[in-house]
Design goal:
By secondary structure, the chain is mostly helical. The chain is built from 11 helices and 7 strands. About 5% of the residues have low confidence.
Length: 281
Amino acid sequence: MKQGFIKIDRQILEWRYHDCYYAFTIWMHILLLANWTDGYFKGNPIKRGELVTSINNLMLVTGIKSDNTIRKWLKVFESEDMISLKTTNKYTHINIVNYDKFQDVGETLAELNAQQSAYQTAYQSAQRSADNIRIIRNIRSKEDINNTCPEQTSFASEPVMDLPPLILKDGSRFHISQTHLKEFVDAYPDVDVRDQILKMSQWLKTNPTKRKTENGIMRFINSWIARAERAYTLKPQSYVKITTPEYIRQQEEGTLPEGKTPSKELIERVLRLQQEGRENG
């Protein structure tokens, strides 16, 4: 088992992708797997802070089953100047930018404590003087996460925890949010939306080859519920048969008691309703 450690600055919690499971997992594994000292790979020099690996290997060590997800986040890291990439048909060469700046272990404990104290003082000062700026930045960061990390819940409300998740094509779980549940309920008032989601969950469990991607799951949910509404609308409605009132039957049989003569209009109306009931039945 590999020994040693890496240094993680607490400011990583301000990184806009820190609460995206896929981004954080891939980045941590890159830091952990990178060379901490110069070495060689198949006779070629590999410097400190560099890593020679493959997409399949990153899928194996991270547990992420989608190669497209791995490739996407490597490109994001590259565009953010966190890494540089060199790829071949056999392996991927990753160079962590500024590795020495954040992973230098030459400081003494006193120096590290002094740095931490200085960082903390600077951070608190910035926090007091730039609250409004931070609020705006956090809002923008959340918007960016919603746009670039669809694997996470990209909705404005908490997921509905009493409903089962929907299994996606890559094996991850999708939880519908309170906001979207309400939208579906409002849009399809004749459908029991919760019941339909339960059915979707079971259907996706038993049909793994027909599971949807993270980008297609909402379209799948909407189509399923819309289809359920159409089935309800097209379902033949039951008809109530109109039985002949007792006094009408008595009149037809000539046994109507004295003083109970119904009007002609009432008799015709009831007979017409009775005939319609027979035809519809």
